[in-house]
Amino acid sequence: MPSIQDVADQINAKLDQINQNTADTVTAAGEIKAELVQANHQLSVVDHDLQVGFANLSQGLFALSELQRLSIALQDHNRKQNDTITCLLENSNELLCGMTRKLTRQLELSEAMLASARRLEGISERANAGEAADYDRHAVLKAQIEECCPPDRPEPEPCPDACDKPGYRANPPKGQDWTPLPPPKGPQRGASG
């Protein structure tokens, strides 16, 4: 049977072991706490970086959307200009076609009138030689008077209505002064507490 001293020594040894284990647990808990504080700090840095990154991303996307809006406005203005050009070309085509028809008809009439006038002049000169000479003198005088005082000319035909010309007022896109935000000034990187 063990003596009381042996039992007391065993109890003291167990108590020493418990004290040592408690001290080891306190040390381990302190290390865990320090690691948790460091992990918490690193998470704060990551959270802050994410917030800054999201703000930068949202500003950049806004600048891009404004550029796209401006691009669409410019394309619409270009489309309207193309419509005006098409209208002008159609008007020019209509005018040229009308002029061609009128000139063709006028040419036919002029050729017929020239042939008829030559025939009548030939007949008249043979029948009335004296009157023909008098007519020629009268024609020269009339030409001189018209040179001095030209007769009124008929009004020209009206041109087609003017095509719509689209006006363009540039709306400068917003957000083009965008620059990335400065590096985060939140929690210090690599610091531990």
Question: Which descriptors apply to this entry?
Answer:
0% strand, 2 helices, 193 residues, mainly alpha
Report on the structure:
- The chain has 193 residues and is mainly α.
- The chain has one domain.
- The chain is 75% helix and 0% strand.
Count the helices. How many? Answer: 2
Mean pLDDT: 85
Structural class: mainly alpha
Poorly predicted regions: none
Radius of gyration: 53 Å
The sequence of SSEs as H and E is HH
Number of domains: 1
Please give the share of residues in helix.
over 70%
Distance between the termini: 55 Å
Total DSSP E strands: 0
**What best-fitting shape do the alpha-carbon axes yield?**
rod-shaped
Percent in strands = under 5%
Taking the sheet with the most strands, its summary is: none
Topology:
Layout: H1 4-127, H2 129-148
Summarize the structure.
The chain is mainly alpha-helical.
